[in-house]
Design brief:
311 residues; 58% helix; 13 helices
Length: 311
Amino acid sequence: MDNKMYVSSSPHFRSNSSTTKIMLDVIIALVPASIASVIIFGPMSLMLIAVCIATCVLCEYFSRKIMKRDTTIGDLSAVVTGLLLALNLPVNINPLIAIFGCVVAIVVVKQMFGGIGMNFVNPALAARIVLLVSFPNAMMTWVDAFWYKNPDAVASATPLSCETPASYMDLLLGTTGGSLGETCAVALVLGGIYLVIKKVISPIIPCVYILSSGLMALVVGEDPLYQILSGGLLLGAIFMATDYATSPITKWGKVIFAIGCGVLTILLRTYSNMPEGVSFSIILMNILVPHIEALTTPKAFGKVKKAKGDK
């Protein structure tokens, strides 16, 4: 009776998965979009990706040291944050602005709230919004696809902001203006399929997000397919709305969360003064996640039976 047994907090499921394996799968899933970005926007894409990843890893290492916490760079979560942030930036952005965004993502949004799993909003998206508000010109100046073959023609517009709509084929292959990882729909869908097959993410959030966006586009008189394939919708739906720490864990919570993201995305695109609404919609729904989970958590079956004599 002297031996004490300790029970950790739930859940008690056993699994071969680990944070490192999950993050590695996310990195693998982002490889097609990263390769596409290098092909479409040139070698500078690779340089920007490397800068963001290196900065995020260094920020995590030094912030953990300063806060006297265990080093967590081995879980690869900082690599994923850096890669996602890079894929949300235009290729011609000043690297110093990208570095500032990495500091915001890792130090402010992630580590100041306790580290991985403790942040209440997606670090990469939060950093992107901070950069968008702080450096609007730099964040909304894009280049044409294959601009590096003709450097004189740099100024461009995304499919959501240009007067001449892009073709569906251009949207599928990514031969349009935009951030590094948002233009090639085929690459993003391939990555999403990989994550679903590996059971890293549930298909509920991406599918409901995309479907609700399409339906909302119909309601406001926009082309549903064009809205789905344009901007960062697929990148956000597949890789950022599904973030474990900032999305609901219940089935119906995921559905409500994804519907909110889809509806807000189209409303912001249509009625706000900015062409894109993915980042803001996901962040707003991230904030509502605790309330969504409180509403959708299943109630315990049965009730405690009172003993005789209890009032």
